[in-house]
């Protein structure tokens, strides 16, 4: 896989493969759909390259923290919600020094697992929101809010993923087809 985020640590690809195996099988292939630093930071670049694509993995880096999400349903820009039981968010390197973990979409929120928003990039419920111009806009968000489960080992769900409970600038984000 050609990913500047995942190439930081050999174990990132292994963990991500384990997380994906139950939903896509053991033969994941990786194909870059969109990388903000390569294709542009604007939400319209994300939508142009990723809308209509199934089985995508969004990978985000903020400082040393690496997290993201998976969805089996295609991205779109209809300003509505996507329903799926298979979506999950994950942490590969977090503020609490925990081992990589997965947070599955809660049963009561499967109808709001994914947000299709013309004016933003990938969104997983209200837990991960990648804003338009995410490298210069302070409107990206990554908290274990309410749409996805919070692992028992997480002490501070507001800061576990990106190191802050506030909106932040993203250092890199990419979407891979799995």
From TrEMBL:
Residues 6-178 form the TLDc domain. Pfam families: TLD. This is TLDc domain-containing protein.
């Amino acid at each position: 896989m050609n990913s500047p985020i995942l190439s930081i640590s050999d174990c990132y690809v292994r963990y991500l493969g384990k997380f994906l195996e139950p939903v896509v099988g053991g033969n994941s292939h990786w194909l870059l759909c969109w990388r903000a630093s390569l294709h542009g930071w604007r939400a319209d670049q994300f939508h142009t390259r990723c809308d209509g694509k199934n089985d995508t993995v969004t990978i985000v880096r903020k400082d040393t923290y690496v997290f993201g999400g998976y969805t089996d349903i295609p991205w779109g820009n209809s300003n509505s919600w996507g329903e799926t039981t298979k979506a999950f968010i994950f942490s590969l390197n977090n503020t609490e020094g925990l081992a990589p973990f997965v947070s599955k979409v809660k049963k009561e929120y499967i109808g709001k697992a994914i947000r299709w928003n013309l004016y933003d990039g990938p969104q997983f419920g209200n837990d991960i929101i990648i804003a338009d111009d995410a490298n210069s806009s302070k409107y990206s968000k990554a908290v274990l809010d309410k749409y996805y489960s919070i692992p028992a080992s997480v002490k501070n769900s507001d800061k576990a993923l990106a190191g802050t409970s506030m909106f932040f600038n993203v250092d890199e984000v990419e979407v891979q087809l799995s």
